[in-house]
Amino acid sequence: MRLAVLKERRPAETRVAATPETVKKFIGLGRSVAVETGAGLASGIPDAEYAAAGAEIAPDAAAALNGAGIVLKIRAPLGAGEGAVDELSLIPRGALLLGQLGADAKTAGIYAQLGIEAGAMELLPRITRAQSMDILSSQANLAGYRAVVEAAGAFDRGFPMLMTAAGTIPAANVFIMGAGVAGLQAIATARRLGGRVSATDVRPAAKEEIRSLGASFVGYESEESKQAQTAGGYAKQLSAEFYAEQAKVVAAHIAKQDIVVTTALVQGRQAPQLVSAEMVRSMRPGSIIVDIAADAGGNVALTKPGELVTTENGVKILGYHNWPGRIAGASSALFARNLLTFLTTFWDKEAKAPKLPAEDEIVKGVLLTRGGAVVHPSFAAAKAA
């Protein structure tokens, strides 16, 4: 059996789940690799580069999946009625599917019914030995970088202080909301561009992280905020009272900002709204807001997911879909390495295939289905009910 890499067909998805670098390494492990034609074009990788790495270039999804034992995807395969190609029906029974699958009880049940062993990489536990496999971190890092670069492109004044014979242009005031992986990279990028940077986050550890990158901390602190972080490092959903107090502090600060980047996500939930319509109206004409959380509903009240909008008071809100996909070459390279690391960690050289021990903490966190059953603890109970 072989490893198959499919072209992404979901809207706004420009990434690919394997690169010539990872294809060559899979072949070195004893696997043949089939890449669907055109899979890497949106990421700047032509078919010829995959072929040079040793891959077979398959003319369509059916040919790529024929006899496949491992299937690599960025996003969940399309099912019947979701697109021109029913990818799910083409995946061989017993194959291992890996990607960012947007896992829930319903989709887990479908994978189990089809006999697909599905691994949702977004559910990877946040432990030290899993860091090099963490697709959320690798993609968020690039999203944070890209957000600031696009803000700079949309901003009609300079990021750094510019001293000229004709006068001085002040540095841009940049406010980063959320200091997770995306937010920290946004802070670092804005600082490198010469902006005057401040940031906020509800997690107690974030204050020192923000300051360590040379930004100033802005935020409301309380007893509740001291418990605002899960054991896995994610932000917890807090009370309405806390968010109301935080909003008061943020509102006064936002009115003075040229650029605001919002990055706040709560795992498995709609993104919290951090910037109200009133806050947007308080900003100066020509200001920029970048909403990285647009795909999860957005952190900004006036965000239109997938669009750039200009408000009545002249503020541009960038709410594009799939921020990592806007830097597709780099994000594909990191995503592909995450998948390669996961598979090689459990690779059996004699079998030339991964062996996923059910008792392993990483496997427990990622694997949705096995042997025609839903096995992930978050969804198995729901399926049984």
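The above is record 1. Record 2 follows with the same two-line structure.
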Amino acid sequence: MNIKVKNLPVSEILCSNCQACCCSLEVRIISDTGVPYQHIYVDAYGNESMRRLDDGKCSALNRDTLMCSIYENRPWVCREFEMGSYECIDERNEKL
């Protein structure tokens, strides 16, 4: 039995064409990486997450460059979410 495999081309994902699709995801802060307090939202139970602005995207996202303004101090989840990973591609497909 043979199964045909269909390879779908994935355009190269770079900082210059990223579109910051992941920046509208909920990002819980689970470790201390030095996220500046003005970017942290604390809920009624004391849980911390990244603050989002009225457009629904992370407050640390530079709206002009679409790059993280706190890159060296970004949360652990953001460090693990790799550009070009299957999670990244899923977000891009959903939002673009």
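The two ends are 37 Å apart (CA to CA).
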